[in-house]
DNA sequence: CAAATGATTGTTACA
DNA sequence: TGTAACAATCATTTG
C-alpha cells in the first residue's frame, strides 16, 4: 500500500473536477497532471518545475499568489489547528477549496484585494527582472544605443519604500448586499 | 539524502 | 481565445 496515497488521488480526482469541466473546458486538463501534458515544443519554457530547474533564474520573480492562495495560507493554519492529525497538503487543499467556494464575494474581497497588491509588486519585480536579463546578456554584439534604454534608476530599481498603504479594514467600501 | 508528488483555485503568459 | 503551467504547503514517497 505504498502507492495508496498517490495513485488513488490521481484517479479519483479526475472525476471530481467533472463539475467544473462543465463550466469550462479548460478544467478538463486534470490538474493532477498538468505537467507536459502536451509539450508543444521543447522550446517552450513552460515545463515542470524540475525541468525549469535546469534554468536557474534566481532573479525571476514567482507568480503572485491568487486570492485563493492568500486565503489558503490562513486557512492552512486554522485547518491544521483543528485537525492536527491531518497534515497532508491535499487535505487542506480540498478543504480550503470547498470553503473557498462557500465564501461570499464580499468575504473574498479582502483576499482579492491582497492578491491584487501582490500582482502590483509582481509587475515591479518583472521590471527589475527584465533589466537583469539585459545585463545578463554579456555577449552583446551591439549595445551602443541599447544603453539608452535604461530607465532612470529612481526607486523602481529596488527599494521602494511606500509604507503609506495601510489597507486593512479600510477596504470595506464594498457594497454590502445582505448575504442571505 | 534529496527531489518530487499530490490537491486546491486563480492568475499569468504565450500561440 | 484558450490552454498549459505554476503559485504555497508539507507529509509521504520514490529513487
UniProtKB/TrEMBL annotation:
Supply the SUPFAM superfamilies for this chain.
HMG-box
Q: List GO molecular-function terms, semicolon-separated.
A: chromatin binding; DNA binding; structural constituent of chromatin
Q: Please classify the protein's predominant subcellular localization into one broad category.
A: nucleus
GO CC annotation, single: nucleus
- This protein's source sits in the domain of life called Eukaryota
Any one GO BP annotation for this protein: chromatin organization
Ranges of Acidic residues composition bias in the record: 151-180
Ranges for the region named Disordered are: 1-66, 94-180
In terms of InterPro entries, this protein maps to: HMG_box_dom, HMG_box_dom_sf, HMGB_plant
Alphabetized, the UniProt keywords read: DNA-binding, Nucleus
Q: Where does the HMG box domain start and stop, copy by copy?
A: 61-130
- The UniProt regions of compositional bias labelled Basic and acidic residues, in chain numbering, are 18-30, 50-60, 109-135
**DNA-binding region range list:** 61-130
Subcellular location(s): the record lists: Nucleus
Concerning its family, UniProt says: Belongs to the HMGB family.
Q: What is this protein's record name?
A: HMG box domain-containing protein
> To which species is this protein native?
Turnera subulata
